[in-house]
Each structure stands twice: as C-alpha cells, then as structure tokens.
Amino acid sequence: MASLISTTVMTTRNNSVMNRIERDYIRLVSMETRAGLPDGAEVGRPTRGSEPRHSDTMKDLAEIASMLEFGGAGSGGKKWPFMTQSFLANIDSLKDESADQFSKLTRNITTPNTVLEKIGDKHALHIKKQIRIIRTPSLSAFTIAAKGSNKPLIDTGLMLNSITHIESRTT
Known about the structure:
Helix content is 58%, strand content 7%. It is mostly helical and 171 residues long. It has a two-stranded antiparallel ribbon. The longest helix is centred in the first third of the chain and has 28 residues, at 2-29.
C-alpha cells in the first residue's frame, strides 16, 4: 500500500512538472524578442551633442539604420551592415544563450519572459558592440573632419543608445 501511495505522489508531481513545462513552452512560443531599434521602444539619449529632437522617434532612427545597413541616398552609396554582421558573428552565442535559458526554464529557475529578456539583452549588446567596432568602409576625409571622428556609425550616440530589445506576443 505504501508503494502505491508513493507511486501516486511521484506520478502527481511528475504530471505537475510536465504541465508547468508545457504551459511555459506554449507561452514562450507565443512570444518574441526583437533587438535593434524596435518600434514601441523608447529612444535613447545622446552621449554628446544636442538633446534629441522631438521628431526623433524609433521609426526615424530605424530608417536611418536601414539606410546605413543597406546603403542609400544619405550614405553616399556606402553600406555598414552592423545588424547583419552582428547577427552572423554572434549566432552561436545567441544559440548558447537560448539553450542555457531554455534549460533554466525547464528546471523552473526562470520564466518565459526572463528567457526572452536575457536573449534580447545579449543580442542588443552584440549589436552595440558591432556599432562601436565597425570601421569599413571608411569615412571620407571631409566627413571625418566635419564630425571629428572616424567612427562611421557614431555621431552623438543617439542611435547606439537607442539599441534595445522588446518582448511581445506573436499571436
């Protein structure tokens, strides 16, 4: 009789754990994290220079970033694919973070929201690092003299400081 009660308790506990894991997994797959300059996030503050204009929105910054990433009228035809390079250079790191966070979720150490926050934090950090280190194609001598720096993607720091991530439901 004691072994039947013990087996029933273990089965109930296992079912409870499996139900929690299933619930967390369903919640996780219905969410996403977007890193970069996601619409809906707050614009960062410049580190030097003027305060952001009231017209500076995340959409404005995303359009500028897109022009820098893919080339465009305002970039003189040059491309600085910082988002693409960041993702490609760090895909293994992001996979490792995802696996680590999912393992913690399975062991009830974290929550689905925290899983996405941690992955988003890491991705945003990689993008910021890429913005800081990218140097090619180089700026023209005129541009370097005008802005006082040879860093193609940093003027006031507004775009850099606006790189973030947000979590949202996909359904």
